[in-house]
């Protein structure tokens, strides 16, 4: 008699002729089950070796699928237990505040100049960042953010062309508000913040000495379905911008 697994095995149908990477085809239906509540916190998932054997894929492919779910905050690995659906976070409700909104709230007058706007097929690197199939039409946008008519930040965004906001909308409002005009509501963003030196061209646009320290933010925005809406890389002058966070114990 075969033993019933004590972990969840996703019913995944793989299209090996599809341009969508296999790891994404594995991760996407599992993500949908977690976000819909069908997979509850604490549910154990099979490990990468079991998944690779069952789905007839390489172990690195299975590992990347689980890693993608972990990067989205949906899975956790516990020593002696394995991979589980992450606990639901209980937090104080708070609206997703944009940098544009923050500047307004602080009494400043933000404005935006679109430096470049164009579309091209996504290569492997771009498709991985947006989790789309290689060759998908992606629009890249470079903007200069001004505060009280003084340059404060450089903003680079990549987004599927099918939902890309118009350049004119970006010049009058925040990226998120311009997206909302296209019917896309951003409900969550993940950010990685660091410091680095500005290159010569970057410094020239920001009107700072070359090599000055700038604040660097990598931003991934998600829509209501949990799908990546846009990927952005932003640079801000350290003397014109401060990142403020309020943390709560839990």
TrEMBL record:
Q: Give the top-rank taxon of the lineage listed in the UniProt record for this protein.
A: Bacteria
The UniProt keyword set, sorted, is: DNA-binding, Transcription, Transcription regulation
For this protein, the record's Pfam families field holds: GntR, UTRA
Q: Name one GO molecular function term.
A: DNA-binding transcription factor activity
Per its UniProt record, what SUPFAM superfamilies does this chain match? Answer: Chorismate lyase-like (SSF64288), Winged helix' DNA-binding domain (SSF46785)
Show where the HTH gntR-type domain sits: 20-88
- Cross-referenced InterPro entries, in alphabetical order? Bact_HTH_transcr_reg, Chorismate_lyase_/UTRA_dom_sf, Tscrpt_reg_HTH_GntR, UTRA, WH-like_DNA-bd_sf, WH_DNA-bd_sf
Gene Ontology BP term (one): negative regulation of DNA-templated transcription
Q: Where are the transmembrane segments?
A: none
Per its UniProt record, what PANTHER family does this chain match? GNTR-FAMILY TRANSCRIPTIONAL REGULATOR (PTHR44846:SF17), MANNOSYL-D-GLYCERATE TRANSPORT/METABOLISM SYSTEM REPRESSOR MNGR-RELATED (PTHR44846)
> What name is this protein filed under?
GntR family transcriptional regulator
């Amino acid at each position: 008699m075969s033993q019933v697994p004590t972990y969840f095995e996703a019913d995944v149908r793989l299209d090996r002729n599809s341009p969508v990477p296999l790891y994404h085809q594995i991760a996407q239906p599992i993500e949908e089950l977690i976000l819909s509540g069908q997979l509850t916190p604490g549910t154990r998932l099979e490990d990468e070796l079991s998944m690779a054997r069952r789905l007839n894929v390489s172990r690195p492919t299975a590992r990347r699928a689980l890693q993608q779910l972990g990067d989205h905050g949906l899975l956790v690995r516990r020593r002696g237990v394995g991979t589980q659906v992450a606990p639901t976070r209980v937090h104080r409700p708070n609206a997703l505040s944009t940098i544009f909104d923050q500047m307004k709230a602080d009494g400043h007058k933000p404005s935006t100049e679109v430096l470049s706007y164009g579309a091209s097929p996504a290569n492997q690197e771009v498709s991985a960042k947006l989790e789309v199939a290689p060759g998908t039409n992606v629009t890249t946008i470079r903007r200069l953010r001004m505060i009280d008519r003084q340059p404060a930040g450089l903003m680079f965004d990549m987004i599927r062309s099918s939902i890309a906001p118009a350049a004119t909308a970006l010049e009058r409002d925040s990226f998120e508000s311009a997206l909302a005009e296209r019917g896309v509501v951003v409900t969550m963003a993940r950010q990685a913040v660091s410091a680095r030196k500005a290159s010569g061209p970057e410094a020239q646009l920001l009107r700072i000495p070359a090599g000055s320290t700038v604040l660097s933010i990598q931003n991934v925005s998600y829509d209501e379905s949990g799908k990546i809406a846009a990927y952005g890389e932003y640079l801000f002058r350290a003397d014109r911008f401060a990142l403020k966070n309020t943390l709560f114990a839990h």
